[in-house]
């Protein structure tokens, strides 16, 4: 008996790194030209350049969780460092970090939503698989 491996039929590869980078920039994960979002957090139904159907994405709460995770892990150690090194008054500390958290969250949220939609496209999740 010979030792042979059976290969599964290969689908066209969708590179994850390129898709995530394009999605983070707010561009279509397929062509990198059209916009993923048409307002702050509304995903376009399709790409205006290549026609990729994005209406069946399921980003849901994923971008919000990722935003909280990133902002929390950046700001909490920074808060401790600033408090120990400079000892500002509580109101100054609160004011600076409240504005910082808000600004970073508002910056990251649409970018992470684009990246989550791009991840789903690259992994052929939730209707992004044309063969199904």
- Give helix and strand order, one letter per element, not per position: HHH
Give the CA-based shape. Answer: elongated
Strand segment tally: 0
Please state the structural category: mainly alpha
Report the biggest beta sheet as strand number plus sense, adding barrel if it closes.
none
Helicity, as a percent range: 40-55%
Gap between N and C termini: 36 Å
Total of domains: 1
Q: Spans of 5+ residues with little confidence (pLDDT < 50)?
A: none
CA-based gyration radius: 20 Å
How many helices does DSSP assign?
3
The proportion of residues in beta strands is under 5%
- Average pLDDT score: 91
Kindly describe this structure.
With 132 residues, the protein is mainly α. The protein has one domain. Helix content is 51%, strand content 0%. The chain has three helices and no strands. The radius of gyration is 20 Å and the shape is elongated. The two termini are 36 Å apart. The mean pLDDT is 91.
Secondary structure elements and pairings:
Blueprint: H1 16-24, H2 62-86, H3 90-122
Helix pairs in contact: 1-3, 2-3
In short:
This protein has 3 helices and no strands. By secondary structure, the protein is an all-alpha fold. Helix 1 (16-24) packs across helix 3 (90-122).
Give descriptors for this structure:
3 helices; DUF983 domain-containing protein; 132 residues; membrane; transmembrane helix; DUF983; 51% helix
């Amino acid at each position: 008996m010979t030792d042979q491996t059976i290969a599964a039929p290969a689908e066209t590869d969708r590179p994850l790194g390129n898709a995530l980078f394009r999605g983070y920039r707010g561009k279509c994960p397929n062509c990198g030209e059209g916009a993923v979002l048409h307002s702050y957090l509304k995903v376009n139904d399709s790409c205006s350049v290549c026609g990729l159907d994005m209406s069946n994405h399921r980003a849901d709460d994923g971008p919000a969780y990722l935003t909280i995770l990133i902002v929390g892990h950046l700001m909490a150690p920074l808060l401790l460092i600033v408090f120990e090194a400079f000892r500002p008054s509580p109101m100054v500390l609160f004011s600076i970090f409240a504005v910082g958290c808000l600004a970073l969250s508002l910056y990251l949220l649409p970018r992470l939503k684009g990246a989550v939609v791009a991840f789903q496209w690259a992994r052929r999740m939730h209707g992004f698989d044309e063969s199904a």
